[in-house]
Recover the amino acids of this structure.
C-alpha cells in the first residue's frame, strides 16, 4: 500500500529541504520524498495537501503523563491523544509518577501501557535518584536497559551538589543525558511567582530569576567537570541563556529547552491570580522572554518542550499559593511556536527543527526527519488555522492551559505515527 | 462599585465617594442610639480565615449599626477544617442569600478569586501581603480630619513593606489623593520594583522622615525573624523604630498612624503611641464609619 501526500510544503530540517512536493509512505515508512515520478510507483491513495506543511512529527522532551498513580489528572491514553492532536508523534514522560519511575519494573509498566493505549510513541525518562529524594542514585543501568532515554528528578531538585555530580558521572557512563530542573529550592523559598513589580503589587510570595541561574551555573560547572550530557529543562531567565551560550562555546555537553508559555507570556499574566499562570519556573519579565526567544532562534536553546503538566480543575480552583504548579501544553505548543514564525523570529524550517529534529537528536531517539526509510512519523500543519483555546476543545483530561480563552493560530490537521493515522482534525482536507 | 477588592482598581472619585459617605456614618456612630435601619433584612457574612480582632469586630459593628444581620465565619470550626475548598464554601455561603461577603485570608488574591465565583459583592478585609483597602480608606479619612486634604502632603510609611497589605493599599490610596509617598525599610523588607507604584524607597529614617507630614508605622511581625529579614528586635527598634528622636526628623506637627496592633517598644515607642501626634485610636473609631460606608455603597445603598 503506497500512500502519497501530494502538493505539500515539505519541511525537513534534517536535510534542509523546504519545497513543494510529495511524500510517499509504504508499510509505515517514508518511501520517497520530493517530486514523485513514475519510478516511485503508482499510489493506492493520494492525500491532496494543497500547500499545507508536511513535517516530521513533533517530539516533546518534557511531558507528564501522570500514569501510573494520578490517572484522574491524565493517563497515557488521554495524554498521548492530546499529543497527537498537537502534532506530536513522540513524547518523553517524566518520572514523578506514583509510584515514582525509579525501577525497571515501573519503566516496563509504562511502556506496556503505552503499547496498549498510546496514540503516539512514548519514551520513558526515569528518576535520577531513588524516590526523587536526591540522595541515592537510581539503578540507571537497569533503567536504561529497560528503555529509559534520560534521567531526571525534575521538580524534586537535587540540591546536594555532590549527589548531582555523581549522578552526572554515572549517567555519562551509561550514555544517557541528565535533565535538570534548575531551581535552588532554598532561594525559591515559598515563592510562587517571579520577583518583581507584578509580584509586589499582587502581594504574592516570589523568587528571583537567580533561583534558576545559580543552579544553571552549578550544573554547567558539574557537566564540565564530569563530561556528562546535561539537558537544562524549561529555561526561563535571560541570564540562564547567557550561561548556556557560554558553556556551549566552551565545549560543555549541554542542551536546553524552553516552554511555549515562557516564550509567549510574562509575569504580568499573574495579575488576575489565575492559577493557570502558576508554574515552576514562573513566568518572568518581558526582557527574559526576549532573551529566550533570541536563544531559541540562535540555537542556544535547542528546542521547545511543553512541560505538559495536567492538574484537575478542582486542584487549580483554590488559593493561588495552594494551587499546584504547572499547565498543560501539548495541544497549544505548535500554535505558540507559529507565533514566533509570524514574528519572523524563526523560519518555518527552524521551528520544525526546534520542535522535532533537535529534540529527537538531543536524546538520541529516532524521528525528526523525512529521510527515505525512516518511520512515517508525520504531521500535516495548517499554519493559519485559527482556534480559541477552550476546555471543551482539549483532548487532555485536564484543562489547565495558560492560554485558555486566547485565540491561537496554527494546528495539526493530521498526525501519522509509523504511517498510521493517529489524529485527524477534519474529515476532508479543504 | 461591585466589589471592594483593592484600592489599586479604584478611581479617585470612588475613593472620595467612600470618604464622603463615611462622614455621615461617623455621625451615626456619635449618636446615643447608634443604629439606623438602612440595611435591615440584609445579611453580611464576615469570612475571617485569618485571625483578626479589630477588623472583624469593626466590620461586625458596622453591619449592625446599619441593622444588617452579621454572621461570622472563622477557619477553626468551619467546613474548611473538613477539607472543603474555599471556593465551595463561598458558593455555599452565597447560596444562603448573603448580601455581602467580607473576606479576610492569609493568601493574596483570595477575595479576588471568590468575587469571580459568586454573584455576591465581596469586600477584601485583608488578603495576605496584597491589600487591605478599608484600612487605607480609614487612614485617608483620619488624615483628612487633621490635614483637610492630602494633596501635596508628604507621607512616610515605615516597616516591613514587603509583607504589608496596609502599605500597598495606603500607597495606592495616598498617591491617588495627591500625596507624595515614601516607603522606608531595610532592603530585606523592601519589595522588588516598588518604584513602579510611584513611591520613593528609603533605607533609613533619616532619609524617609525629613519634611514628612505623616508617619505611618507598620506592625513588625516578630515571626519574620525566622525568615532572617532582620537580625534582632533590638536592632530593628534602633534603626527603624519611631521614638522622640526619630519623630523629630519629621515636620514639627507631624501625625502618626499605625494600623495596629502595636508592638510597644519595637516599631513605636510607648510614649509616642499614646501622645498627641498619634491618631491610632481615631483610626479605630473611623474604621467603623468607613466600613459602614463600604457596606452601604456595595449593597446599592446609593441607588
Amino acid at each position: 500500500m503506497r500512500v502519497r501526500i501530494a502538493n505539500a510544503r515539505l519541511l525537513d530540517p534534517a536535510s534542509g529541504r523546504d519545497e513543494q512536493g510529495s511524500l510517499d509512505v509504504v508499510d509505515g515508512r517514508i518511501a520517497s520524498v520530493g517530486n514523485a515520478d513514475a519510478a516511485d510507483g503508482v499510489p493506492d491513495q493520494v492525500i491532496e495537501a494543497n500547500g499545507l506543511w508536511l513535517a516530521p512529527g513533533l517530539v516533546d522532551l518534557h511531558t507528564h503523563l501522570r500514569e501510573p498513580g494520578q490517572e484522574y489528572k491524565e493517563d497515557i491514553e488521554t495524554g498521548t491523544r492530546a499529543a497527537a492532536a498537537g502534532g506530536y508523534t513522540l513524547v518523553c514522560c517524566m518520572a514523578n509518577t506514583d509510584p515514582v519511575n525509579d525501577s525497571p519494573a515501573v519503566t516496563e509498566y509504562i511502556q506496556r501501557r503505552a503499547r496498549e493505549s498510546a496514540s503516539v510513541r512514548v519514551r520513558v525518562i526515569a528518576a535520577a535518584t531513588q524516590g526523587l529524594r536526591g540522595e541515592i542514585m537510581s539503578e540507571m543501568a537497569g533503567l536504561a536497559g529497560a528503555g529509559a532515554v534520560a534521567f531526571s528528578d525534575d521538580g524534586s531538585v537535587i540540591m546536594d551538589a555532590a549527589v548531582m555530580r555523581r549522578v552526572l558521572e554515572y549517567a555519562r557512563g551509561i550514555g544517557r543525558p541528565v535533565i535538570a530542573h534548575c531551581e535552588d529550592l532554598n532561594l525559591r523559598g515559598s515563592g510562587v511567582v517571579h520577583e518583581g513589580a507584578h509580584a509586589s503589587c499582587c502581594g504574592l510570595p516570589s523568587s528571583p530569576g537567580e533561583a534558576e541561574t545559580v543552579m544553571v551555573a552549578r550544573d554547567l560547572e558539574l557537566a564540565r567537570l564530569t563530561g556528562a550530557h546535561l539537558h537544562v529543562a524549561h529555561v526561563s531567565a535571560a541570564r540562564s541563556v547567557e550561561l548556556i551560550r557560554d558553556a556551549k562555546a566552551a565545549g560543555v555537553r549541554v542542551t536546553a529547552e524552553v516552554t511555549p508559555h515562557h516564550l509567549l507570556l510574562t509575569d504580568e499574566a499573574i495579575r488576575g491570580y489565575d492559577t493557570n499562570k502558576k508554574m515552576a519556573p514562573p513566568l518572568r519579565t518581558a526582557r527574559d522572554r526576549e532573551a529566550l526567544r533570541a536563544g531559541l532562534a540562535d540555537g542556544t536553546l535547542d528546542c521547545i518542550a511543553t512541560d505538559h503538566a495536567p492538574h484537575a480543575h478542582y486542584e487549580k480552583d483554590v488559593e493561588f499559593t495552594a494551587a499546584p504548579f504547572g499547565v498543560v501544553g501539548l495541544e497549544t505548543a505548535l500554535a505558540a511556536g507559529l507565533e514566533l514564525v509570524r514574528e519572523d523570529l524563526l523560519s518555518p524550517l527552524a521551528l520544525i527543527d526546534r520542535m522535532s529534529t533537535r529534540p529527537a537528536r538531543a536524546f538520541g531517539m529516532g524521528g525528526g526527519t523525512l529521510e527515505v526509510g525512516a518511520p512515517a512519523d508525520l504531521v500535516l500543519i495548517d499554519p493559519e488555522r485559527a482556534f480559541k483555546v477552550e476546555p471543551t476543545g482539549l483532548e487532555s483530561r485536564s484543562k489547565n492551559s495558560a492560554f485558555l480563552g486566547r485565540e491561537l493560530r496554527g494546528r495539526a490537521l493530521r498526525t501519522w505515527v509509523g504511517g498510521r493515522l493517529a489524529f485527524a482534525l477534519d474529515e476532508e482536507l479543504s | 462599585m461591585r466589589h471592594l477588592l483593592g484600592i489599586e482598581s479604584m478611581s479617585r472619585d470612588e475613593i472620595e465617594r467612600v470618604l464622603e459617605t463615611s462622614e455621615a456614618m461617623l455621625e451615626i456612630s456619635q449618636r446615643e442610639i447608634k443604629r439606623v435601619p438602612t440595611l435591615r433584612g440584609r445579611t453580611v457574612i464576615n469570612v475571617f480565615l485569618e485571625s483578626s480582632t479589630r477588623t472583624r469586630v469593626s466590620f461586625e459593628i458596622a453591619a449592625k449599626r446599619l441593622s444588617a444581620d452579621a454572621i461570622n465565619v472563622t477557619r477553626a470550626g468551619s467546613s474548611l477544617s473538613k477539607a472543603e475548598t474555599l471556593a465551595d464554601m463561598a458558593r455555599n455561603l452565597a447560596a444562603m442569600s448573603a448580601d455581602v461577603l467580607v473576606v479576610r485570608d492569609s493568601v493574596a488574591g483570595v477575595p479576588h478569586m471568590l468575587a469571580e465565583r459568586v454573584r455576591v459583592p465581596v469586600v477584601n478585609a485583608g488578603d495576605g501581603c496584597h491589600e487591605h483597602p478599608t484600612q487605607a480608606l480609614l487612614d485617608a479619612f483620619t488624615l483628612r480630619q487633621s490635614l483637610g486634604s492630602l494633596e501635596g502632603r508628604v507621607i512616610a510609611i515605615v516597616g516591613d513593606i514587603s509583607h504589608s497589605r496596609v502599605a500597598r493599599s495606603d500607597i495606592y490610596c495616598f498617591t491617588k489623593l495627591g500625596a507624595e509617598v515614601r516607603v522606608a525599610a531595610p532592603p530585606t523588607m523592601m519589595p522588588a520594583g516598588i518604584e513602579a507604584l510611584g513611591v520613593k524607597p528609603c533605607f533609613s529614617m533619616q532619609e524617609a522622615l525629613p519634611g514628612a507630614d505623616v508617619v505611618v508605622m507598620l506592625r513588625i511581625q516578630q515571626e519574620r525573624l525566622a525568615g532572617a529579614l532582620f537580625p534582632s528586635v533590638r536592632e530593628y527598634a534602633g534603626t527603624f523604630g519611631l521614638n522622640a528622636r526619630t519623630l523629630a526628623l519629621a515636620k514639627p506637627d507631624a501625625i502618626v498612624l499605625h494600623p495596629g496592633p502595636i508592638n510597644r517598644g519595637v516599631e513605636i515607642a510607648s510614649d509616642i503611641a499614646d501622645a498627641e501626634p498619634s491618631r491610632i485610636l481615631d483610626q479605630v473609631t473611623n474604621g467603623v464609619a468607613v466600613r459602614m460606608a463600604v457596606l452601604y455603597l456595595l449593597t446599592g445603598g446609593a441607588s
Notes: Residues 183 and 302 of chain A are 20 Å apart (CA to CA). The two ends of chain A are 24 Å apart (CA to CA). The interface with chain B takes residues 195-206, 208, 272-273, 314, 317-322 of chain A (CB under 8 Å).
